[in-house]
Design goal:
By secondary structure, the chain is an alpha+beta fold. The chain is about 40% helix and about 20% strand. The protein is built from 15 helices and 16 strands. The strands form 3 sheets. Strands 1-5-6-11-10-9-7-8 form an 8-stranded mixed sheet. Strands 13-12-14-15-16 form a 5-stranded mixed sheet, with helices on both faces. The chain has a 3-stranded antiparallel sheet with strand order 2-4-3. Helix 1 packs antiparallel against helix 5. The longest helix has 20 residues. The radius of gyration is 27 Å and the shape is elongated.
Amino acid sequence: MGRKVQAIRGMNDILPGQSSVWQYIENAVANVVKSYGYHQIRFPVVEHTELFKRGVGETTDIVEKEMYTFDDRNGESLTLRPEGTASCVRAADQAGLLFNQVQRLWYVGPMFRYERPQKGRYRQFHQIGVESFGMATPDIDAELIILTARLWKQLGLLEHVELQLNTIGVAEARENFKASLVDYLTEYKDELDEDSQRRLTTNPLRILDSKDQKTQKILEGAPSLDQYIDQESQEQFERLQAILKANDVSYVINRKLVRGLDYYGKTVFEWVTTHLGAQATVCAGGRYDGLVEQLGGKATPAVGFAMGIERLVLLLETLELIPDAAKASTDVFVVSMGADAELTSFSLAESIREALPNLTVLRHCGGGNFKNQMKKADKSGARFTLILGDNEVANNECQVKDMTTGQQESCALDKVSEYLSSF
């Protein structure tokens, strides 16, 4: 026998017992974003490498260390998408959806980054992204944040997450701040952690959210980004806060919040939790007004966010917030003994599915005696088992067994759906 082929490390199967929870989250998101007027967009998992180098930034960790990049047979450099925003911009601009237009878009799908796999961080992970184009005012930033708050409320998570806000200003303000930050940190270069030493010459803003305690101690005396913020960005930030307060959305200002991708500017935000250890961020985003133009389109204001499905599943499981209705279940199990009963069981199951489409009806297949069929009915977790024998078929009825009480009674075949609908 040949060696079994295993899944790639950090790329996980989503098994039947887990997929129902994923569907629960995805359906909740789909319903919320639809209520705000967002439309789904789908794009390929493979893009030209240049898209991410230009969009995400060549000095970011994603582009420098984490992308799955390869040459195809024509010698073109292609990359499995490491994030969704750049792809969404490319797709929408290519289709002519952006210039002088307002668009509200969302997407869901796998992303790929070569990282050390750990709980809540995988090499293939899944994101839900929500992006808005064509609106430069902070009311759309606020709407996106209020949308996420509504989602957390629906999932029962609102009391378990914290909204952190910051403004990182326009490009000129950030460049002025970067210069001062580099001047300050250069004096302490040898004391910084290894990643921060590298970022000092490539992406110094990322040093602000270093997890190294010694680096954070050094940063206590560093210049503050808010001292360099331009007036327009500050006014937008204050207006955003006013809208959130008026809608009872709590937040804290985190002056070290910068986000890890080059395209962000002005408002940035994260929803974080204390229930997942090091992987604290469950949703993050901000404004990226320059990205469309940076990727070759016409200048278009934009703002959006992304959330990782794996972390949301993990958070719901940790807090035991997954409702029973979101778990894989069988409502009705149909067993039959005899040739006539087997034929009738098909039409009975179909009639229930037609009349009660929200029920899961599992008809036993594969043969077996009555005892074994009943064991499978019990194992399925079904609330009701419908029992058909040739005698029942002759009398145009079936036995309905309530598996929670053990009570069993006869019911006319044409009344079974009506009987089940009362529970």
